[in-house]
Amino acid sequence: MKIQLQEVGEVLHLASSGRVIIRLTKHLRDNQILVDSSGVKVAKVSEMIGPIDAPYASAVPLTNNIKKQIGKKVFIVEETPVMRPKRFKGNRRR
After folding, report:
1. CA–CA distance, 27 with 79 (Å, rounded to integer)
2. Contact at 8 Å (CB) between 10 and 72?
3. What's the maximum distance between 2 C-alpha atoms anywhere in the chain?
4. What is the DSSP string of 21-42?
5. Which domain holds residue 19?
6. Angle at Cα 11 formed by Cα 10 and Cα 15, nearest 5°?
7. Considering its fold, how many domains does the chain have in total?
8. Lower CB count within 10 Å: N or C terminus of the chain?
9. Model confidence over 9-50: pLDDT tens digits?
10. Would you say residue 36 lies in a domain?
11. CA–CA dist 75, 4 (Å, integer)
12. How far apart are CA 46 and CA 33, in angstroms?
């Protein structure tokens, strides 16, 4: 599978609850994993907050040095399947 990174937002700050607040440029699903530009897991989206036209996400940090990520872009990983020839489906018995 080919792995592509798609930019989805920027880390704003670390909340007092320990969660990370992220300004989004794209709507995400809950429990989606966010990575940095090198592909290292940074956070897991726990809930979407704010208006629909300017969404934010509250996310659980997955790294100990989350303060280094403040102000940096975050991405989601898109895996595209590699094309391979289709196999015969069905019974071959006669």
Report:
1. 18
2. yes
3. 69
4. EEEESS---TT-EEE-TTS-EE
5. 2-79
6. 150
7. 1
8. C
9. 999 999 999 999 999 998 888 899 999 988 899 999 999 999
10. yes
11. 9
12. 10
